[in-house]
Amino acid sequence: MKLIIGNKNYSSWSLRAWLAARAGGFTFEEIRIPLFIPGSREHILSHSPSGKVPCLIDHGFVVWDSLAIGEYLAEKNPQLWPADASARAVARAVSAEMHSGFSQLRQNMPMNIRKDYTGHGHSPEVDADIARIAAIWADCRKRFGSAGPYLFGEFSIADAAFAPVCFRFKTYGVKLDGAAAAYLDTMLSNADMREWETAALAETEAIAAEDLYG
Ligand SMILES: N[C@@H](CCC(=O)N[C@@H](CS)C(=O)NCC(=O)O)C(=O)O
């Protein structure tokens, strides 16, 4: 398998697919294409029909979009979703909510692992997104998380879906409490998350449009 990804510092969608592939135990070659530099669009299009990353290529078969990649990997390793049908339904619901929602948080607190933007990015709408995410985390941990430290116990695609938010909360110094704070600590200590973070810190490309606060 090959996984086409963007800059580790900035590409939140890439992180989701990469974590799902890691958590599923897949061996894959990583092809990193720095975004928004001359030639990057053509380079991505040579692999990914949407012109976006991430994109998974399995023996020539192409799957794009992070959620579709997660589902494709879960067909091969069902442990990427919770085993219990109710837990699995909620895991899909919160992953879909993350995939299509929280636009204010995305716009005002883009993933930018290298920066310390503590205190930046807040507005009533952003704070409402943060509150909803904290409520999702606390609810999943309480109802489904008894078998481990992740949202549904064991690491699942739902954790991969929220992983970029965890890095955002670190960058922007977002303070949580209770179960949501404990879950954030768990995610930021996860070995794959740490490996991604180390690689992001070593990157040197800067995307001015994403460096919102200097
Ligand atoms: N919904 C898509 C979003 C993919 C996406 O927007 N990727 C961004 C990088 S994080 C991208 O490829 N941008 C490059 C471009 O638009 O030219 C997914 O889940 O994979």
Question: Can you walk through the features of this model?
Answer:
This protein is an alpha+beta fold. The protein has two domains: 2-77, Glutaredoxin; 81-197, Glutathione S-transferase Yfyf (Class Pi), Chain A, domain 2, CATH 1.20.1050.10. It is built from nine helices and four strands; from the N terminus they run βαβαββααααααα. A four-stranded mixed β-sheet has the order 2-1-3-4, with helices on one face. A hairpin with a 2-residue loop joins β3 and β4. The longest helix is centred in the middle third of the chain and has 21 residues, at 124-144. It starts with a strand and ends in a 12-residue tail after the last helix. It binds glutathione. Glutathione binds next to α1 and α3.
Short précis:
The chain is α+β, with helices and mostly antiparallel strands and 214 residues long. The chain has helices at residues 12-23, 40-45, 66-76, 85-100, 103-108, 124-144, 157-171, 178-189, 191-202; strands at residues 2-5, 29-32, 55-58, 61-64.
